[in-house]
Input
Amino acid sequence: MADEKKQATWGGRFSEGPADLMLRIGESVSFDQRLAAFDIQGSQAQAAMLAHVGIITEAERDAIQEGLDAIFAEIEAGKFHWDKSLEDVHMNIEQALTLKVPAAAKLHTARSRNDQVATDMRLWFKFACDQLDASLTATIQSLVDLADKTSAVIIPGYTHLQRAQPVSMAHHLLAYVEMFDRDRQRVADVKEQANVCPLGSGAIAGTTLPIDREFVAKALGFVDANGNPKCTQNSMDAVSDRDTFIGFAAACATIGVHLSRLSEDFILWSSAEFGFVKLPDAFTTGSSLMPQKKNPDAFELIRGKSARLTGNLQMLLTMVKGLPLTYNRDLQEDKPPVFDSLDQTLLMLDCVAACLPGVTANEAKCAIAVADPALLATDVVDYLVVKGVPFREAHHVVGALVGLSEKLDTPLNKLPYAEVSKIHPQLGEDWSEVFDLERALKAREKTGMPGPKQVAARIAHWRK
Ligand code: ARG
Output
């Protein structure tokens, strides 16, 4: 280990320093240094509160806050030396501050790293949720744009991956917009859950010192809509609760599942077998062997990465499951999965948002796929129902028509009327007018259906 062994801040009772392997397994600064901005914010609020209640002087507060500003500037400039023997971001910053400012020795008054890290992470979650929201919004925007361009393109909708009924490509794409909009709500809920201040909970049982928890909560922006401070209500829960981690990882995993399903659709649609869309070159790759290949790698990687996101959620649930109250060092492992979930989810969303503008629909291929008249078999059932035929009977009648079409090897809409009329008296000569795609879609204008007016209204809704 390159870093020389330093006496840790907790070193008073120890006769020798930790073994190199203890340092290696114990350090978290390699990944929690990304909390520096939030850690410094928390410490500045803590110093302000300590001065407010008279535990430190105003001069000491100012010295601490200025020292922390200087350290933050060093970190931002990449000049700060992170020392693994100081374990984590909290001790690295506190030690650096101690070298600059004697009053730093008072900063940790009435605070433990347990409530400190819980506070840092809640600040981080609020920041992370804002980033997710922005990327979700951009993805929604790109889907709505593509829907706008493809509202006249009719494709088969599928159930069981078998052609089912015609829909516009726009209606299909807008299904994902509904999912990502629900994800935005989920992310907003996580942000709200994070918006409670644990500082002052100490290691487990608060403190005997006359601190002002509400003051710190306000200073850090843990407030409700009316600006009133929000503080955690049980010190033991506050230092051991990881629900926000789980909620955040669950929100990312759900976004990942939605992105994965979208990816799967684009992978299928861009295959020769479907050929519904052409993907932009910039988001595909070639083969090192087969010159003709154009592979949908971005979408495949998104599908693959969604597994990581569900794994991160699983990891957190498993880690917390058997822990006795309150803080246990296991909990240090809580950060890599949520950092990874944020980074990967943003990358996945941003890729989709950047790729979709380059996607074009292959209208000729879509028209061939949707030309199968059997896609409108259900509409023939509805035609009979309108004429008073009970649904079950109508379903049976159309089943017979489909059987006849297979037997005569003739498309449903091309069956000779002489044969058709024998199957049911209510099948009038106008029965084949049902086989008109535009008409079929225009007949579906109730809320949530794929009718062109509905789709246009949904696009207008999302534009707002
Ligand atoms: N690096 C630690 C973590 O992330 C900070 C809390 C340490 N607390 C303790 N009691 N050792 O969990």
The chain has three domains: 19-109, 116-367, 372-463. Residues 113-149 form the longest helix (37 residues).
